[in-house]
Design a protein that fits this description.
Residues 633-714 form the S1 motif domain. The chain has 756 residues and is of the alpha+beta class. 27% of the residues lie in helices and 26% in strands. The longest helix has 31 residues, at 598-628. The protein is globular, with a radius of gyration of 30 Å.
Length: 756
């Protein structure tokens, strides 16, 4: 006789874990079976389920030991994820899938020498844990586990057919199914970070589980979060690093050189929050026409000691990442905006370099000191430019003669040496995203390139050269900033493109920066001038960090290192420590452990720099697309900057925005692609689109999530005056222009040669 009673549904892992979590007493397999009315054969899959939960690290020997005990301790066996390598070469891990509100404890992994598996950052390991103190553990691996579940970032959408996640990644071809049981608190239209679950649904799509809800995607501020998660940029500091930064305090003079009486000033962007360099200049009384200049940099090495939690995290990040609406800093705010920020009228420790240049702008000698300074003023580029143009404000009037004019005089002299060595003088316009207080993108404007920008950049370049020279003279490791000569294949492609525009460029010649600058000078009055600058930029090698000196092609320098921004670049912190050691300026210089890892560190920070640059670029594209999503149908002038079988790539003149005109959106014809001459030619009507041509385009589609903008070529009657974008008024007389309230910009960093 059979029973009509239906068996209860078998519990999910989440249901079992919830039961264990909520139970006031310890539970085991028997209690779980009773709670879910499991009998007979049901106990076999229950045993398998509990084994899987154990392997995943949810409890130790049995379910009685839940993964995070009430007293905050981790269980003796836990799944951990290796996140980084500290300065001593030790692997650091955190509990996998940590979901608590407070920072995860640090786990120092001590691999068993008898183990047959190698561990690298990113691996997941089942490990035995031994508590060291309240915030750290020692972990001994038991076995290496499968790779962590792949995470995807997307938009949660609730439809009649159920819940879906649409990935923000342009390359993703399919959506993912999201069961409401795994959606956490996510609502329709919100940005969610998900893990891909094992197996496939009956619809042939993979299922996901929400790990984190990032907010409403319609908010512009969510767009930078996309890049942060997409590029895996660390944006939460370990508790130990935060505590170390918070414990920092004022520095006394001690053995430092006292420079507090000198009128050093900081000059930065209007939206800068941290000021890590100050400058000063005076005529050199011992060298007619020459100058004595000082560049003082925040003494980050004093606060960030090698091997400390702060140092480990700074090295992991490699650099700060800048977005229009936020900064992901290399150092916690207590340092980046506090003790390592050269705030006016406050004593600050610094690494300073005295430099003496002759009347031709050549660096003749230099001297590095550890100093205590007191910045006399926090100035903006615009304020300095106004003053130098003859329109000082109340703030700059008293500084004009004693401070600003000597700085300008030293800069004018330094330009002689720059021109003599023949640097590559590219003119690439930089555009900034303007946002209001609510985070809405209100405009895309061209950033002004002032003499005050160039002045600071030249001071920083000279200080960087002095640092490289000093370290070479001491035969100490140096974190060089290298930029190799362009690849001959790229130069050949450049020559073909220039030839197609009627510009002579001999193939096979020895390429020096001056040669390319001469091309730019010849093309300066041509309509294609901007495009030619872009083409020469594309032909360049990518600058990077290296322990070996390979020179800097773009700056035409035989040796170059980054010294001037240790607050936001780990490379500069390494250079500071090397100088401290070589010049016996303290006991916080370069360690022997760091010396042996220079090549590895150089490779790592080069990668983090590329990661940040990609995230910043992606976010600017997304903010730009957000702006143009409200301009659908509007017509803009632009130029063709790329010709492809897929269509034409267009750069809009006034905003620098890039978009694609798909082949199907070109004027009606069948187009033949001439790869060599970079053109499309209509087979029927003979219309030709060449690289560099000016065109009018209509905004057809703009997707803030992908950052893509689709355009149409418009001609004749379609070029409607009513839908044509009104040209922006150009302010030629800077001192008479009204200042804009630029709350957000495409790059918060000041143009001080960050990527040189």
């Amino acid at each position: 006789m059979t029973s009509d009673r239906k068996s209860p549904p078998f519990p999910t892992k989440e249901a079992v874990l919830d039961f264990i979590e909520q139970s006031p007493t310890a539970v085991g397999k028997r209690e779980i079976a009773r709670a879910f009315n499991l009998r007979g054969n049901d106990k076999i899959p229950l045993k398998q389920l509990l084994k899987e939960l154990k392997d995943e690290g949810h409890f130790g020997r049995g379910p009685k030991q839940r993964k995070n005990n009430i007293d905050g301790r981790l269980p003796p066996v836990q799944v951990i994820e290796l996140t980084r390598i500290d300065s001593d070469g030790e692997l650091i891990a955190v509990p996998a899938a940590w979901e608590e509100d407070h920072p995860a404890p640090m786990i120092y992994v001590l691999p068993d020498r008898k183990s047959k598996f190698d561990l690298v950052v990113g691996d997941r390991v089942l490990a035995k844990l031994k508590r060291l103190d309240n915030k750290s553990y020692q972990g001994i691996p038991i076995r290496k586990l499968e790779a962590a579940a792949l995470k995807i970032l997307g938009i949660y959408q609730i439809t009649e057919e159920g819940g879906f996640v649409r990935p923000v990644d342009k390359k993703a071809k399919k959506d993912f199914i999201l069961n409401p049981d795994y959606a956490k608190s996510a609502k329709h239209g919100e940005l969610v970070l998900c893990e891909i679950r094992k197996g496939r649904s009956r619809k042939g799509l993979k299922e996901v589980k929400v790990v984190d809800v990032l907010g409403d995607i319609d908010s512009s501020r969510a767009l930078s979060l996309v890049a942060i998660h997409e590029r895996n940029i660390p944006n939460q500091f370990p508790e130990e690093a935060l505590e170390e930064a918070a414990a920092a305090k004022q520095t006394t003079l001690g053995k430092r050189t006292d420079l507090r009486d000198l009128a050093l000033v900081t000059i930065d962007g209007a939206d800068a929050r941290d000021f890590d360099d100050a400058v000063w200049a005076e005529p050199d009384p011992d060298n007619e026409g020459g100058w004595h200049i000082i560049v003082a940099i925040a003494d980050v090495a004093h606060y960030v000691r090698a091997g400390s939690p702060l140092d480990d995290e700074a090295q992991t990040r490699g650099n700060s990442t800048y977005f229009a609406d936020r900064v992901v800093p290399m150092l916690p705010e207590a340092l980046s905006n506090g003790w390592c920020s050269l705030k006016p009228n406050e004593d600050r420790p610094s690494m300073a370099v005295h430099m003496w240049i002759d009347a031709e702008g050549e660096l003749r000698k230099h001297k590095f000191v550890r100093a205590l300074i007191r910045s006399q003023a926090r100035l903006t580029y615009e304020e300095v430019q106004e003053a130098l143009n003859g329109y000082p404000s109340d703030k700059t009037a008293d500084l004009l003669d004693p401070v600003l004019k000597p700085l300008k005089g030293a800069y004018d002299t330094m330009l002689k040496a720059r021109h003599k060595r023949g640097t590559l003088e590219l003119e690439i316009p930089e555009f900034q995203v303007v946002m209001d207080e609510s985070g809405e993108v209100t405009d895309i404007v061209k950033r002004q390139r002032l003499d005050s920008h160039k002045l600071i950049e030249e001071f920083m370049i000279t200080a960087n050269v002095a640092a490289a020279i000093e370290l070479e003279s001491k035969q100490l490791p140096c974190m060089y900033r290298v930029h190799e000569a362009p690849d001959p294949v790229k130069i050949e492609g450049l020559a073909d493109s220039l030839h197609g525009m009627g510009i002579k460029f001999a193939k096979g010649q020895v390429i020096r920066p001056k040669v390319l600058t001469q091309v730019l000078e010849r093309a300066s009055d041509l309509p294609e001038s901007k495009l030619i600058n872009e083409l020469i930029l594309r032909a360049q090698s990518q600058a990077r960090y290296d322990a070996t000196n390979l020179g800097h092609f773009g700056l035409a320098l035989t040796r170059y290192a980054h010294f001037t921004s240790p607050i936001r670049r780990y490379s500069d912190l390494m250079v500071h420590r090397a100088l401290i050691k070589g010049l016996n300026l303290g006991n916080d210089g370069l360690t022997s452990a760091e010396t042996t890892k220079f090549n590895d560190i150089a490779e790592h920070i080069s990668a983090t720099e590329r990661r940040s640059a990609a995230a910043e670029r992606d976010t600017v594209n997304r903010f730009t697309a957000s702006f143009f999503s409200r301009k659908i149908g509007t017509i803009y002038p632009g130029k063709i900057n790329g010709v492809h079988r897929a269509g034409l790539f267009i750069t809009l003149d006034e905003t620098g925005a890039d978009g694609l005109v798909p082949m199907s959106y070109l004027p009606d014809d069948y187009y033949l692609h001439d790869e060599k001459n970079h053109s499309l030619t209509g087979r029927r009507w003979g219309r030709v689109f060449n690289l560099g041509d000016s065109v009018m385009v209509r905004i057809f589609e703009s997707n803030p999530i992908t950052g893509g903008i689709a355009l149409r070529i418009v001609e004749g009657d379609d070029n409607n005056e009513e839908t044509r974008a009104k040209p922006k008024r150009q302010n030629k007389d800077h001192h008479r222009g009204r200042k804009r309230n630029k709350i957000g910009t495409s790059s918060r960093r000041s143009p001080k040669g960050k990527n040189r």
